[in-house]
Amino acid sequence: MTTTHHLTKSLAQYVAKPTFGSVQAQAQAMAIANLGFIDTIGTMMAGSKEPVVQLLMAHYEKYQTPQEAPLGFANVFKPAPIAACINATAGHALDYDDVAMSGHPSVVLVPAILAEGHCLNASGEQALQAYVVGYEVWSELVYREPGKYHLKGWHPTGVLGTVAVAAAVSVLHQLNEEQASNALAIAASMASGLVANFGSMTKPLHAGRAAANGIEAVRLAKIGVTASPDAFEHSAGYLNALSVKQDADRLSAADRLGQQPRILETGLSIKRYPICYSCHRTVDGMLDLVAAHNLTPSDIDHITCTIGPAQASMLRNHRPQTGLEAKFSIEFAMASAVVKRDVGLRQLTDEFVLQPAVQALFEKVSVQINEEPCPLEPCLALTDRVVVTLTDGRSLDSGPIRFPLGNAGKPLDEAGMRAKFIDCLESAKALGVDLPFTAQTLYSRVSRLESIHSLKSIFER
After folding, report:
1. How far apart are CA 383 and CA 35, in angstroms?
2. In a shared domain, residues 64 and 177
3. Structural contact between residues 92 and 104, judged by C-beta atoms closer than 8 angstroms
4. Residue 392's domain is classified under what CATH number?
5. Which residues contact 19 (CB under 8 A, 6 or more apart)?
6. Which pLDDT belongs to residue 64?
7. Residue after which a domain boundary falls, among 214, 243, 266
8. Which residues contact residue 256 at a Cβ distance below 8 angstroms, ignoring those fewer than 6 apart?
9. Structure letter (DSSP) for residue 374
10. Which of 97, 10, 39, 22 is nearest to 264 (CA)?
11. Would you say 321 and 354 are in contact if contact means Cβ atoms under 8 Å apart?
12. Beta-bridge partners for 389
């Protein structure tokens, strides 16, 4: 497609008339997008009983009309932006949702597409195409910033996700170029999310507000609300505002849009642990060492984790006292791996975090920084590492760890995806979520999304 050096216009042209390279590339991109729907719907169910979700349910109780879109985990319909907000918050509440491009693309894109797609009676194929477009717009923007968003205090899921959702929902509405330009620029002014709120209820709310705001931006543009035609590239625009050094690439052509989708290069990384992705590689390394040497807490004198600077900034809770705080603590991740030989949903409880054996290990964990960045995930180091010093003086070394299992470079197979999905739904049911369908039934529906004629059938009771 023809692009110009005016970034906002290029984005709008792509969103109004998206192309995906070859037929084969489009099919492959949509298959990856389908993984995002599977993972998000699973984690959405598992997180639906988290306190922040219940508080949102109470907050939005009075918003009963129009009954546009369902909450996936309850027989309740809400206005689409509110449904998207609650579902996205639930999907991110456990920090168990997928990862790419320094953030969590699926947990904002999927709930928004499901909600607005339900209103529009969109098909599964249309939903997958909208997802790919949203992902590509996110990707086009994130790599224009040479710095690391997290180190500047920005949570990419909120600031990039809002614009990505507007792109995806614009596709569902089939907006023309002018409308799409306005929708994206409106969304740019709505984008927000602070790293300082990691480890609190507000962190998953970043995803919820991004999903809702992206829908609102499109709806506003569709009825004629205007925005600046250079909102992204202007010296006082989106990219510069998010860049502390104001050295983002605002002017080069967006000539990758509409060609081979970037999602084929960066993919989606599926989490195996419901904690910040910044310490997944070290968890893999620690669990391998524990299993290989049958380690117990009494064997360990010290644990040294080598990770990237942005990762260290996210893992801010060095002495967590709650399950929520523990999600952003490398000290907890290492302690749980040693004490329980697992870092799962059952360990992310206040009771487990406060166990003396867990708390005692925190002071034995230290962090070193690897400054070499990963070209695929800007917020990660190229590799992580775990070195365990034992009380008998021996040293055990994980060696450099490039990808955790589940990463796009080391993906889960279909059985692994299914197992995580079913575990999420069984966890939800154990917490009292009343689901009228079996985990296998819902998995069967979501895993063949391209063949579904209407998104309304996904959560049919």
Report:
1. 25
2. yes
3. yes
4. 3.30.1330.120
5. 1, 258
6. 82
7. 266
8. 140, 262
9. P
10. 22
11. yes
12. 302, 395
Q: Residue 304, SS3? A: strand
- Start-to-end C-alpha separation, the chain: 43
Q: Are residues 33 and 150 in the same domain?
A: yes
- The pLDDT value recorded for residue 75 is 85
Nearest to 271 by CA among 410, 372, 402: 410
Instruction: Give the E-state strand segments of 228-349 in sequence order.
Output: 300-307
Phi, psi of 305 (to 5 degrees): -110, 130
Is residue 197 a part of any domain in this protein?
Answer: yes
Question: For 193-235, what is each residue's pLDDT tens digit?
Answer: 999 999 899 999 999 999 999 999 999 999 999 999 999 999 9
Tokens standing for residue 275? 């904690």
133, 168 contact by CB (below 8 A)? yes
Asked if residue 138 belongs to a domain, the reply is yes
User: Angle between the 105-120 and 202-222 helix axes, to the nearest 10 degrees?
Assistant: 40
Q: What is the SS3 assignment for 82-141?
A: HHHHHHHHHHHCCCCCCEECCECHHHHHHHHHHHHHHHHCCCHHHHHHHHHHHHHHHHHH
Do residues 385 and 237 share a domain? no
Specify whether 205 is located in the same domain as 301: no
**Residue 427 and residue 425: Cα distance in Å, rounded?**
5
At 239 the three-state DSSP class reads helix
Clarify whether residues 229 and 291 are in a common domain.
no
**Of 399, 400, 395, 384, whose CA–CA distance to 301 is shortest?**
395
User: How many CB atoms lie under 10 A from the CB of residue 399?
Assistant: 11
pLDDT in tens, 243-284: 989 999 999 989 899 999 999 999 999 999 999 999 999 999
Type and span of the H or E element at 15: helix 7-16
Instruction: Quote the domain boundaries for residue 34.
Output: 7-266
Closest CA to 276 of 412, 444, 155: 155
Residue with token string 């962190």: 203
Residue where a domain terminates, one of 397, 413, 435: 397
Q: Are 461 and 436 in contact (CB under 8 A)?
A: yes
Distance of alpha carbon 119 from alpha carbon 173, whole angstroms: 10
Which residues are within 8 A (CB) of 430 and not within 5 positions of it... i.e. 6 or more apart? none
User: How far is C-alpha 191 from the chain's CA centre?
Assistant: 15
CA-based nearest residue to 10, from 144, 193, 173: 144
Chain Cα centroid distance, residue 264: 17
Residue linked to tokens 């109470």: 58
Q: Report, in angstroms and rounded to the nearest whole number, the Rg of the chain calculated over CA atoms.
A: 21
